[in-house]
């Protein structure tokens, strides 16, 4: 199990490196990410959230209930997006904070799997939201970058308050 990095750590706002080696270490890292995500009751996790600045993210809207629903995305790119959805969103790097974020209703992505093979995937609704959120992480973009300046300031104030109180962690 890995520790989850919370907002304020510079690794979360860096652009990640492209993965070029598809080996047993990568498979192990992704398995650890999945276990860490499940333990934290999340629906997705990106490698920077465990302090690894590489373009790896996972989404599992069943939180580990159905292994077939795990989407592993290495070096993902959004190919197409359409429509708009607005809904409450959370992030394991922002414990106990949610905010309404606008996302595309539908997306089409391409990514590599654990063997390095490229695949395409289409998603809509909540799955599309989760995929966009995780891919954002790989570009150093956080949900706070997707809201108004006012909302961002409110969240930052909450974070500072909890940092001072020593309660800003997962
Ligand atoms: Ni997140």
Short description:
With 170 residues, the protein is an alpha+beta fold.
Structural account:
- The protein is of the alpha+beta class and 170 residues long.
- It has one domain (10-165): Peptide deformylase (Peptide Deformylase, Alpha-Beta Complex).
- The protein has 3 helices and 7 strands; from the N terminus they run αβββββββαα.
- The protein has helices at 24-39, 125-138, 149-165; strands at residues 44-46, 56-59, 71-82, 85-90, 98-103, 106-112, 118-124.
- A 5-stranded antiparallel β-sheet has the order 1-2-3-6-7, sandwiched between helices. The protein has a two-stranded antiparallel ribbon with strand order 4-5.
- A hairpin with a 7-residue loop joins strand 4 and strand 5 (98-103).
- The longest helix has 17 residues, at 149-165.
- The chain is globular.
- The mean pLDDT is 97.
- Nickel (II) ion is lined by residues 91-93, 133, 137.
CATH architecture heading: Alpha-Beta Complex
What small molecules accompany the polymer chains? nickel (II) ion
Low-confidence stretches: none
Which fold name is given in CATH as the topology? Peptide Deformylase
Average pLDDT, rounded to a whole number, is: 97
CATH-defined superfamily? Peptide deformylase
Q: Terminal Cα separation, in Å? A: 13 Å
CATH class: Alpha Beta
Basic shape: globular
Strand order of the largest sheet: 1-2-3-6-7
- Biggest sheet layout: 5 strands, antiparallel
Topology as H/E string?
A: HEEEEEEEHH
According to DSSP, the number of beta strands is 7
Question: Which percent range fits the helix content?
Answer: 25-40%
Could you tell me the strand content as a percent range?
Answer: 25-35%
Count of the separate structural domains = 1
| Oligomeric grouping of the chains | single chain
């Amino acid at each position: 199990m890995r520790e989850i990095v919370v907002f304020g750590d510079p690794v979360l706002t860096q652009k990640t490196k492209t993965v070029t080696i598809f080996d047993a270490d990568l498979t192990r890292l992704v398995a650890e990410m999945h276990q860490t995500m499940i333990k934290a009751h999340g629906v997705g996790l990106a490698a920077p959230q465990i302090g690894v600045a590489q373009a790896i993210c996972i989404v599992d809207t069943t939180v580990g209930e159905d292994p077939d629903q795990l989407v592993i995305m290495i070096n993902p790119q959004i190919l197409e997006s359409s429509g708009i959805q607005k809904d409450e969103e959370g992030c394991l790097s922002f414990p106990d904070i949610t905010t309404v974020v606008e996302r595309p209703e539908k997306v089409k992505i391409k990514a590599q799997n654990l063997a390095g093979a490229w695949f395409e995937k289409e998603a809509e609704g909540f799955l599309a939201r989760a995929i966009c959120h995780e891919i954002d992480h790989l570009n150093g973009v956080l949900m706070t970058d997707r809201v108004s300046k006012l909302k961002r300031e409110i969240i930052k104030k909450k974070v500072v308050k909890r940092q001072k109180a020593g309660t800003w962690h997962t």
